[in-house]
Amino acid sequence: MENSQKSFSSLIVLAVGTFLLGMSEFIMEGILPDLARDLSISIPMAGHGISIYALGVCVGATFLIALHKLPPKHIIFGLVAIIFVGSVLSVTAQSFWWLMIARFISGLPHGAYYGVGTIVAYRLADENHKTRAVSIMCAGMTFANLLGNPAATLLSGMLSWRFAFSVIALGSIVDLLLVAKFIPNLTPLPDNGYKGQFRFLKHLDPWLIIFATMLGNGGILAWYSYISPALVETGGLTASYLPLYMAFAGLGMVIGNLLSGYLSDKYKPGLIAAILQGIAGVILLVIFFTVQFGYLHLILMFFCCACFFGMGTPEQMLIIEHSKGGEMLGGCCIQIAFNFGNAVGAFFGGLPISAGLGYAYPALVGFPFVVMGFLLLMYFHKLYEKK
Prior knowledge:
By secondary structure, the chain is mainly α. It is built from 16 helices and no strands. It has a single domain, classed as MFS general substrate transporter like domains (Growth Hormone, Chain: A).
């Protein structure tokens, strides 16, 4: 019983870290108009802050290749320290390029944290609850979208977008103390050498998971990156209620993440991820044709965000199970896939807006990405889970 309570406390501390990362990653969607106005740049240009964060994630995730010999607790502590540095630089940004550098640094710990955090959660859980343990760790990000980012959007509208980043800086100081106290001193993973970490990439199964993740995330982020102006400027909803709209999206993420963790332990995680990605594709297509109906867009946003974070937990779990001997690198790869997809999605989603086509078109841009990801997951399920 005592060990179970200690494990749960450790998972909650890991979730605090993903809460901070969730705020760091998705904070831009809510404060985009205020930030663009303050720095005298266009909204699509400010949207590059989403892409550059994602590129930072891709670069930072590779840190784990060099750090795999260290105890997981030490790695997590160092990554939370980088969250603090990136948020402080964001608070003090005075220009577009300063902000881009700050966003890049903020992205560096994201993928590595998820990579090592997933392994810690996996090792702490019993055999029948491993996906649920990962979903508890990931829940921090969903609660960031339910509570943290709406609060940040509110602070941005009432005071300044800089206060939103200040919350992350203060939270990271608290999390450093929690990591020091509650994360157990687990032994490092077996050292298979640098080449041994890459051996799992010779097989097809991890590549199907990686590309399906990249395409699914990219397709949804092509739409979600521009959700604020789509709801207000095209949907006609009240701008002052944006924090509530973001909270509603966050509620969908919380429910989707926890529900998929339960279902993935009960059924096949690849199939669960495929079904959710297929539903998300249908929703994006409906959004394209109905984006002018703001309240309908809100409802569709809730379900699409539930699918968005529902997909992530089983995909995170699958890569650990299909990267034996290189689990940390596998965790890196899936986060690179998540965030490279985010970067590509935000970029391509902004193109029709820059061309003057309006805020309906990012959803249409994202649709084929999500469909391709769905097909890859179904192929994975057929090859590796239908037994």
